[in-house]
Fold:
Amino acid sequence: MTLGEFEYLLITAAATLGENAYGAAMREAIMQATGRGCSIGALYTTLDRLEAKGLVRTWMAEGTPQRGGRSRRMVRVTAAGKAAARSFYDTIIRISDQAPWAQQTEDVG
Amino acid sequence: MTNIGWRLVDALALQLAPAEREAVLGDLIETQTSAGRSICEIGGLLVRRQLHLWKRFEPWLAAAGLAFPCSLMLMGFSFAISSELRDHFVRGTSLNHSLAAPAEAVTALSQIFVLLICSWTISITVDSLSRRTFVVSAVCCFLPCLFCLLRFHHQSLSRLCLFLFLPPAIAGIRFSRRTGAIKRRWAVTLAIAATISLAVLAACGNVWILNWVLVGPAWYLVVRPGGVKPTPENEGAIL
Structure:
């Protein structure tokens, strides 16, 4: 299953956050990693699409005081989601192998 | 400003499904987003949700295929019935005249049946096809109404006579929201009654061929009675 860039970012953020993966936390992780904004609309509509594809599973969990007691939409990456993300990652690594910027990154490192 | 802003946020959030509303408002509170920014975020989500709905054919069918053309045709029936009623009652024509001219009485009754049944069944069908885009369907219904309202000038008829189809249509929507499903036996009865009434009008030469579209929703309710109940995708948050 092919992924788009933002779908990959969401799955990776959810997998990284593990048990703490929910809307606000994933949004924060994506904004920190990319350095650009992530709208709630993009986040939740993409989550719906990923769930429809069977790549993530979501459910509602109890809220916390810092959320005013409002529920959280928790996210867990499914096995199919992990496979799709792995495939996307491998493709990026393969296609980037000889790219000038990849070489420059290695030089800097 | 802050209070007004957060009231606007709450009002906008009401358009979301309850579970999603909780999650989104919780996220906004947790990240201490300002009221103005929250309005933009929720507005963006609502726009995306609406656009997503329009990728399916049902909203297009409900708004452009049914609400818009059928409101025009039903306004025609409303005008015809109003004219008949004026001739029979306002001008003082007695019941004896109707008995003397049964063809006219049958035509008038057929028009009334078509208007009542078709308005009711069309509104149920539009509501059940795409409840979350019902506002757009309603606008598609009211735009031709407004156009005709502004242009209609008749010395002996009120402009409101164009809208005789609205009460049964509103009753249909209320039925759809409260009951949801119609029994097949009733659906068949209504569809046959509407078809016979329209056939009578056609035999009298009072029907434009496209008027046959009006009985389509009545037969839709027969063929697919389960379709009257909104599916989760069609179900709206508060509409």
